[in-house]
């Protein structure tokens, strides 16, 4: 495990020499220490990235050349799959099967953007028909400049790849600030970058806390584009900071996503996707379908089956065989989720869970929790908890289900389940959300756009949309000098 930041191609300590503890959520014990970066470290990193953009080869390399480096990064991640997954389990707490899935996806993201980098060689320029004699014009895609990325703790290496890989494909150097709760695997990217042949300064990684390192990155005048995934309040502050400097910004923020289940859905199928939609990754998922709406005709039998299966989920250390539910990421997150559950008991019926599993009190564990019979105005129904807590309500009609689903300040994800695909498509079209699933919840594909409506964010990640976040469009128009212009100077011959 690395215990230094990565700046200009080298692992270095913080300018102040300060360090901070990395704590395992499975037992709340310190297992590592990393540098506590501040504004001075961010300045060093931004200057390295700025030099790599202004003077280095990376923005001027062909897409094929950049793609070759990205592909090697993906290969190196795949080669270290087991090691990196186990680091994620130790740092984040998630079960090993989920961590392995994350690392596979991370390697796939780099491979995907290697292909998109190569495609830029053929579509970086586009001729524009003007319909004006003597003029020709083209639009060119160019890297936006130095990118700053602040990533969350729920999918540490995967979320880093969602920003690093498309930025590199576009030709942008990056300063990456991982979450202080899960910095371990992000630091490993420095070693992977060096071994892949990435030029110095193209990737810089500064560990530290939001008020010291994150804010300094958002405010730095040498950063041209900011990308952030995290909470709405922090995203709002970053957007305000970006506005002061007129920086390009993309934000992937919170959610309180609905899942609508119609009565023609097989109950076992519905239960499987309801559980995956909220208990995967311990519910620490921005798009988690934490509001479930069930048609009245199957509400009672579906609820009974859901509770039965939720109580069977094996909880424990992420490296133990059979465990599918690990601890929450930190003591503070553990306390926050439990603090959300407690008042929920007075505004809804606690059906199952709601506490700390017996025998696991030393870690940050919370039982899979199901609430029912709450009003639509209930806090627990309306606000993001970011833990393994789902609220369930019945509905009578399609219109009622759509209204309740859309009645939220969030609009990240939504899902609908029905054997009637025409109805499912109709409801999917009515959802006010950026990501909609039919007959499933959560599985994500690198090829497709990811992002939300309303307070769930600005812009899109993944697919071509993710790469385009890091591109500017330039118009170049040429006039035929053999033609006289003569607006002011008449009868000139050029």
Description:
The structure is a single chain. The protein is of the alpha/beta class and 494 residues long. It contains 15 helices and 22 strands. The protein has a seven-stranded mixed β-sheet with strand order 14-15-16-13-12-18-19, sandwiched between helices. Strands 9-8-7-10-11-21 form a six-stranded mixed β-sheet, with helices on both faces. Helix 2 packs antiparallel against helix 4 and helix 2 (63-79) packs across helix 6. The longest helix is centred in the N-terminal third of the chain and has 28 residues, at 96-123.
Q: Which helices and strands occur, and which strands form pairs?
A:
Layout: E1 5-7, E2 10-12, E3 19-24, E4 29-35, H1 39-54, H2 63-79, H3 81-92, H4 96-123, E5 125-128, E6 135-143, E7 147-150, H5 156-170, E8 174-177, H6 184-196, E9 203-205, H7 210-219, E10 225-229, H8 232-245, E11 248-252, E12 258-261, H9 267-279, E13 291-295, H10 296-310, H11 331-347, E14 349-352, E15 369-372, H12 379-382, E16 389-395, H13 398-406, E17 410-411, E18 413-417, H14 421-430, E19 435-438, E20 453-454, E21 457-458, H15 463-468, E22 471-479
Parallel strand pairs: 7-8, 7-10, 8-9, 10-11, 12-13, 12-18, 13-16, 15-16, 18-19
Antiparallel strand pairs: 1-2, 3-4, 5-6, 6-22, 11-21, 14-15, 17-20
Helix pairs in contact: 1-7, 2-4, 2-5, 2-6, 3-4, 4-5, 9-10
């Amino acid at each position: 495990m690395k215990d230094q930041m990565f700046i200009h191609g080298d692992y270095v300590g913080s300018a102040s020499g300060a360090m901070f503890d990395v704590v395992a959520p499975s037992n709340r014990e310190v297992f590592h220490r990393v540098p506590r970066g501040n504004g001075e470290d961010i300045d060093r990193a931004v200057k390295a990235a700025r030099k790599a953009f202004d003077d280095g080869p990376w923005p001027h390399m062909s897409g094929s050349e950049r793609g070759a480096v990205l592909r090697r990064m993906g290969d190196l991640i795949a080669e270290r799959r087991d090691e990196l997954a186990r680091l994620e389990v130790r740092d984040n707490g998630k079960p090993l099967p989920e961590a392995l899935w994350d690392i596979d996806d991370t390697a796939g993201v780099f491979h995907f953007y290697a292909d998109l980098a190569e495609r830029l060689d053929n579509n970086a320029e586009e001729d524009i028909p003007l319909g004006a004699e003597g003029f020709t014009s083209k639009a060119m895609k160019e890297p936006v400049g130095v990118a700053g990325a602040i990533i969350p703790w729920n999918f540490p290496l995967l979320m880093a790849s969602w920003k690093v890989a498309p930025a590199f494909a576009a030709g942008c150097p990056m300063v990456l600030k991982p979450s202080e709760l899960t910095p371990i695997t992000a630091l490993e990217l420095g070693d992977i970058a060096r071994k892949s042949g990435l030029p110095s300064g193209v990737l810089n990684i500064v560990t530290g806390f939001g008020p010291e390192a994150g804010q300094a990155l958002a405010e730095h005048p040498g950063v041209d584009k900011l990308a952030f995934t995290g909470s709405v309040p922090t995203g709002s502050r970053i957007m305000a900071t970006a506005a002061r400097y007129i920086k390009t910004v993309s934000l992937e923020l919170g959610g309180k996503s609905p899942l609508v289940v119609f009565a023609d859905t097989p109950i076992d199928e519905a239960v499987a996707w309801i559980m995956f939609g909220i208990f995967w990754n311990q519910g620490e998922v921005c798009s988690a379908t934490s509001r479930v709406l069930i048609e009245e005709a199957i509400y009672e039998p579906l609820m009974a089956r859901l509770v039965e299966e939720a109580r069977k989920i094996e909880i424990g250390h992420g490296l133990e065989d059979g465990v599918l539910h690990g601890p929450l990421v930190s003591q503070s997150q553990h306390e926050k989720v439990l603090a959300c559950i407690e008042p929920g008991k007075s505004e809804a019926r606690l059906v199952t869970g709601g506490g700390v599993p017996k025998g696991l009190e030393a870690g940050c564990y919370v039982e899979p929790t199901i609430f029912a019979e709450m009003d639509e105005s209930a806090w627990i129904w309306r606000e993001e908890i970011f833990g393994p807590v789902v609220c369930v309500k019945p509905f009578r009609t399609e219109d009622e289900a759509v209204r309740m689903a859309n009645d939220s300040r969030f609009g990240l994800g939504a899902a609908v389940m029905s054997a009637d695909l025409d109805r499912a498509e109709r409801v999917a079209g009515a959802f006010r959300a950026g990501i909609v699933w039919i007959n499933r919840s959560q599985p994500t594909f690198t090829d497709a756009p990811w992002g939300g409506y309303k307070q769930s964010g600005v812009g899109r990640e993944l697919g071509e949309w993710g790469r385009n976040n890091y591109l500017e469009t330039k118009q170049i128009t040429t006039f035929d000098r053999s033609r006289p212009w003569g607006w002011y100077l008449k009868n000139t011959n050029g």
